[in-house]
């Protein structure tokens, strides 16, 4: 029996007590609901002693790094560094097709890039302190922010079912060990809908608070063949049109997750009086409570028609669009 306002006050006090007057915290942000809300809460509690890091892994959605940067720094005031590591990620992903291999490469590379950036922040902080008048040693980065929710806490304690290991979700165990950081998890008592309420109270704009989940490995698990810059670009454009039309139709909040998938096959089409031989986009949209099961979403036909015609007209390299009518199980939400 508590209100969210009380929760905010108590949590901010708790964070301040844990960190002390000088302690610094780092955390990764993705632009998703959980990490944004957690980052904003940390900023409210300790200001610029919270350092957010966003890693551009080259497989984000169209203009995503720039949008997240604008939202977090300009709108929410969070102390954020965006690291463009797309070259490194794409070079390590070269010629890789296996989904689990893609996940592992992205997870490991993320940790490498994050650690390197954290070390830079730490070095800059130390330098700042040397120049500080009081001469007191202070302000090491001691904490790592995690946007863990209550269901994740429960799952990691009690969930040992086979599906836990069906897909590898990347974790931060390595960071904690290598960097000797301690975890700070301000959302660990909350459910998703509570995080959204909290986000709104913290002044986070509605479109961000309502955002569909986006997987850590990003578009790499939505490109069914090898991941190249060209393939990423094609998928980004198609996905952007798809989501834009879903928003225009007022359907975004009725859908739990929607995204486009780029298939590694070519099909024949016709443009003017010429045959084309180009790739295929599959559209996915599901409704789900917890993503353990999911139903495919029934679109009004005219919305699908508009999406398909825009994608085939506007995205070079695509001449065919299909809609995925598979539920989970037996399919998964993602194609990889
Ligand atoms: P599946 O495809 O397993 O997806 O039915 C269920 C939910 O999990 C997301 N997902 C991931 N999220 N890293 C993530 O952070 C991953 O490797 C990953 N794989 C799947 C998926 O987007 C959906 O919301």
TrEMBL record:
ATP binds at residues 30-36. One of its GO terms (molecular function) is GMP synthase activity. Its main location: cytoplasm. Pathway: Purine metabolism; GMP biosynthesis; GMP from XMP (L-Gln route): step 1/1. Residues 2-211 form the GMPS ATP-PPase domain. Keywords: ATP-binding, Glutamine amidotransferase, GMP biosynthesis, Ligase, Nucleotide-binding, Purine biosynthesis. Transmembrane segments: none annotated. Coiled coil: none annotated. GO terms for cellular component: cytosol. Homodimer. Also forms a small population of homotetramers. This is GMP synthase [glutamine-hydrolyzing]. It comes from Gloeophyllum trabeum (strain ATCC 11539 / FP-39264 / Madison 617) (Brown rot fungus).
